[in-house]
Amino acid sequence: MKGVMLNCHVWGLFGDVMLGTLTIPYVFFPVISGTPLGILTRFFDINAFFQTYIAVACVAEVGSSIVFMFENRQSQTVTSSWKITSEKGRKAFYAINVIFPWLASTISLMRIPEQTSAKLEMLKTIPCPTIEFFQMPVIIVTTDAKSIGLALMLLLLFYTIQVLFFIIHSSFYLCISTKSYAVSEKTKKLKRKYFVAVCIQIMIPFAIMAVPVSYYAFSIVTDYYNQSANNFCFLIMSIHGFFSTVATIAIYENYRNYILHVLRIRRNLKVTLIQSKSMAETTYI
Known about the structure:
By secondary structure, the chain is mainly alpha-helical. It is built from eleven helices and five strands.
């Protein structure tokens, strides 16, 4: 579990760094357009479309890392069928989930329009953009927001179906299935507690990200333009990893105790260890 948790934190951190430091997108939704203001532009003059491609793919990789966390829990919890057992199958599963965000980003950037005419078309939707539109090298990713929306919807659906399957299957096994009777009630109780903690850890930053994503969807569908709201939503998206870290420390007792120990607020560390031969795993809570 440590590996997939670390993977999730790394992608969350990298997504925050991409949005909040390396690229800093200044967007003009409801048109899929904007300009990067980050380090990659100011100091390295990297192509804006390439920055967009990398930033979108890295943020999307957070979704794959969440899938890996729940797949790991399901694999360690369930002893019956309907789980990945072979090493080749797991490698293929990981490869598909890692590659899919980059593929979706590639598809979404395949129809880049001619920029001069696209900017004139944009002014029909946003007749009075902020002065930055005229002063900065703004790029138009597409004049058809529906194509981007479709790619993002497919990406979201791809991850949502997997996560729901792993959550439902693990919950059924821990709470209803008679096949889990071989495990002691104390072990099952601790595993349920840990599984709920993983769900809460993921749902807190997910709920925070839902706010800007919902606004952008509303903006695109209704052609509503509000530059302050655009900037504020990207600010929220760029710090979602911070909330994920806070959630991890708050939820997991071992992490919380360690932080308190480092800060010299608590001297004794308490570690809960579950060892179950029937489930062939050792779990730390």
